[in-house]
Amino acid sequence: MPKYTIAISKTAQKQLDKLPDNIANTLISVIQQLAENPRPYGYIKLKGGEGYRIRKGNYRIIYDIYDTVLIVDVIAIGDRKNIYE
Q: What sections of 1-85 are H helices per DSSP?
């Protein structure tokens, strides 16, 4: 299986920067694993639009997959309470 390139939006990067280091590091490792498998166990296609979601604890990572160019584009990262607003 080919390896995907990870792209992180400015919004997602700002959201990641605001998180405590231990949580941010955990989420970064999850994001890096998306390069190997952009559709890991537990991922969900979002309703009402494009995008996928994976969970890590109380946090959610929202991303798009572009199979033709092998890119995973991380759109948003945040707590489950306010990620979908």
A: 10-18, 21-33
Residues 6+ apart with CB under 8 A from 45: 51, 52
Look at the block and give the residue holding tokens 């995008």: 51
Rounded Cα distance, 47 and 31, in Å: 21
Could you tell me the pTM of the whole model? 0.91
Give 83's pLDDT tier (boundaries 50, 70, 90).
confident
Per-residue pLDDT tens over the stretch 24-50 = 999 999 999 999 999 999 999 998 777
Q: What is the DSSP letter of 58?
A: T
Chain-centre distance for alpha carbon 43 = 10
